[in-house]
Specification:
The chain has 637 residues and is α/β, with parallel strands linked by helices. The chain has a domain of 278 residues: Aspartate Aminotransferase, domain 2, CATH 3.40.640. It has 18 helices and 15 strands. A 7-stranded mixed beta sheet has the order 1-7-6-5-4-2-3, with helices on both faces. It has a 4-stranded antiparallel beta sheet with strand order 8-9-11-10. A hairpin with a 7-residue loop joins β8 and β9. Bound molecules: pyridoxal-5'-phosphate. The site of pyridoxal-5'-phosphate has 14 residues, from α5. InterPro entries: Aromatic_deC (IPR010977), PyrdxlP-dep_de-COase (IPR002129), PyrdxlP-dep_Trfase (IPR015424), PyrdxlP-dep_Trfase_major (IPR015421), PyrdxlP-dep_Trfase_small (IPR015422), Pyridoxal-P_BS (IPR021115). This is Tyrosine decarboxylase.
């Protein structure tokens, strides 16, 4: 592709992106594809020869788009927003066009310097203390762009670990570093993002996960007590990761309390992860949420979440850049340059060496919207979340599960977790809305986040109407299922009663009322031996489609008839009072075991079973019956 074609295709691409974003609402918000769907649509090898651009673009629409989850969709309310805006896209495009790799100041001075300036701009707008700003007179701190919040937590933990090990090494010069490492303990709340756990795994340090209060907020006393306890055990607290705006419910750890508690542990690094919420602190009225930041050693927020900036752009500020870089500096000759001491080399501020020109897109965003435009955007999302909260509160079948301070509302149907799981999965499967769950205070909740840049009140109302429709349907079905269950349980109880009656009847013939035997009961001669049936050797009783005559008869008589018929060559069909069916008893040649009372479990060989007979048979299949029912012999022993 030469520049002439790039111009043409570039225009087409802009057109494609605009169309995509403008008509996004017409698509399903989530794809309905199975894992591996794309493998079946694309060749197994890369093409040997160049392909036609139009063909590639047509595959985008036909093969790629069906598998895309549309994070910018007005019906997407999952996770947190994925920052996106035209200025940001263009800024990224320019960065890609320039294509520099700004690992050091010398590798591309503008890349480094713009990052420092833009991070100072944003840091000031957020309200970070001066010691976090690189260009403030006398400051030792500064900001840097990382790929993700996870990386921010990792590098700060690495820095804290290096600092703690250095201190311990100085105190115990002859102790192995591995042993010192095994003493280090980090802390976070149960509500902290899983990236803290991951960072601890990578850093090979212990992590103590602490219980937050009923508002999902980690309290100072909890942290202080845990650290004191651990010190008594010979462990060394070295890092606390707090969260402002937790992933689950956008809860805020009590930073002033924790910071105050950490005064007793001056060597402990205090990190603040405000991946989503931190962006909102550009609004003056939300700055109180940042209270306690003066205690922090580092702070991160993701403009690529809630500041209209495309991924990746996670901003991290540290109070002392030397403490950060001393954990990460490796300085081979080929990377040294004449201004190493005078300029920032961002390669020492993170894991990768190579770095994209990411500050360009943030610079474009900050300039295009201005702080006021970004404040308007944040406030708009909060207003939408409040509207949604009000709708939920009006419906008494639902409850709100978090304090709605920003753009996230956590709610649930009053009822079981299972019920809420069913509701959410039905909604998500429909492709009409997309939300994700979380567990807050051990309860399953549904998260609803205002996400789309230009979301409207109508979008919120649509979302709520959709949720209500699904809830109505689900609750109706649950009610119906409950009634069916009650009926079935009643049926089973009745059957169990009947069964117990059979058993009592056959084991105590006195309860049999001969008056009900309306059939011409065969004469029972006194010489006739009483039937001796063993479990598992009951007479085989077959129903007949055409019955000779109808007779009410009870189980004991059936056995008598059976033996009688055999001897006399009779073959009469009978009607069982309790089974309400016509049967013809035929003899089982196996009726020779030790005597016992027949029970329903003895019934075998029903043909054309009516429903009641089938139900009577089922307990025999039940493992419980098989396990628990004693054998005839055991019954008698
Ligand atoms: N921290 C918090 C509070 C988050 O909410 C998230 C993600 O939502 C993360 C960390 C992880 O973010 P990233 O994907 O940038 O690593």
């Amino acid at each position: 592709m030469d520049s002439t074609e790039f111009r043409k295709r570039g225009m087409e691409m802009v057109e494609y992106i605009c169309n995509y974003l403008e008509t996004l609402g017409e698509r399903r918000v989530t794809p309905s594809v199975e894992p591996g769907y794309l493998r079946h649509l694309l060749p197994t090898e890369a093409p040997q020869e160049p392909e036609d651009w139009d063909q590639i673009m047509s595959d985008v629409e036909d093969k790629i788009m069906p598998g895309v989850t549309h994070w910018q969709h007005p019906r997407f309310h999952a996770y947190f927003p994925a920052g996106n805006s035209f200025p940001s896209i263009l800024g990224d495009m320019l960065g890609d066009g320039i294509g520099c790799i700004g690992f050091s100041w010398a590798a591309s001075p503008a890349c480094t310097e713009l990052e420092t300036i833009v991070l100072d701009w944003l840091g000031k707008a957020i309200g970070l203390p001066d010691h976090f700003l690189a260009l403030k007179e006398g400051s030792t701190g500064g900001g840097v762009i990382q790929t993700s919040a996870s990386e921010c937590v990792l590098v700060t933990m690495l820095a804290a670990r290096a600092q703690a090990l250095k201190r311990l090494k100085a105190q115990h010069p002859f102790v192995e570093e591995g042993h010192l490492l095994s003493k280090l303990m980090a802390y976070c709340s149960k509500e902290a993002h899983s990236c803290v756990e991951k960072a601890a795994m990578i850093c090979f340090v212990k992590l103590r996960i602490l219980e937050p209060d009923e508002n999902a907020s980690l309290r100072g006393q909890t942290v202080g007590e845990a650290m004191e306890e651990d010190e008594l055990q010979g462990l060394v607290p070295f890092f606390v990761s707090t969260t402002l705006g937790t992933t689950g419910s956008c809860a805020f750890d009590n930073l002033p309390e924790i910071g105050n508690e950490l005064k007793k542990f001056p060597c402990v690094w205090l990190h603040v992860d405000a991946a989503y919420a931190g962006n909102s602190f550009i609004c003056p009225e939300l700055k109180p949420l940042l209270k306690g930041i003066e205690y922090a050693d580092s702070f991160n927020t993701n403009p690529n979440k809630w500041l209209l900036t495309n991924f990746d752009c996670s901003t991290l500020w540290v109070r002392d850049r030397i403490r950060l870089t001393s954990a990460l500096v490796v300085d081979p000759l080929y990377l040294k340059h004449g201004y190493s001491d005078a300029a920032i080399d961002y390669r020492h501020w993170g894991v990768p060496l190579s770095r994209r020109f990411r500050s360009l897109k943030l610079w474009f965003v900050l300039r295009s919207y201005g702080i006021s435009g970004l404040q308007h955007y944040i406030r708009h999302h909060i207003k939408l979340a409040k509207r949604f909260e009000e709708l939920v509160l009006k419906d008494k079948r639902f409850e709100i599960c978090n304090q709605v301070k920003l753009g996230l509302v956590c709610f649930r149907l009053k009822g079981t977790d299972k019920l809420n799981e069913k509701l959410l999965s039905a909604i998500n499967e429909s492709g009409k809305l997309h939300m994700v769950p979380a567990s807050v205070n051990e309860r399953y909740i549904i998260r609803f986040c205002a996400v789309a840049q230009n979301a409207t009140a109508e979008d919120i109302d649509y979302a709520w109407d959709t949720i209500v429709d699904f809830a109505n349907e689900l609750l109706e079905k649950e009610q119906h299922d409950e009634i069916t269950e009650i009926i079935n349980r009643k049926k089973q109880d009745t059957l169990a009663q009947k069964r117990s009656f059979f058993v009592r009847m056959v084991s105590d013939p006195k309860i049999y009322n001969p008056a009900i035997n309306k059939a011409g009961t065969p004469k029972l001669s006194m010489e006739l031996p009483s039937p001796v049936i063993s479990r598992g050797s009951a007479p085989i009783i077959r129903t007949q489609s055409s019955v000779d005559h109808n007779s009410w008869i009870s189980w004991p008589l059936a056995f008598l008839f059976n033996s009688n018929n055999e001897e006399k060559g009779n073959n009469c069909s009978l009607r069982f009072r309790h089974l309400d069916t016509n049967v013809r008893p035929t003899s089982s040649r196996r009726n020779s075991g030790a005597g016992s009372s027949p029970s329903p479990e003895n019934e075998t060989g029903f043909v054309n079973q009516p429903q009641q007979q089938q139900q009577m048979q089922s307990p025999r299949k039940s493992p419980m019956v098989l396990r628990k029912a004693p054998s005839a012999r055991e019954n008698h022993n």
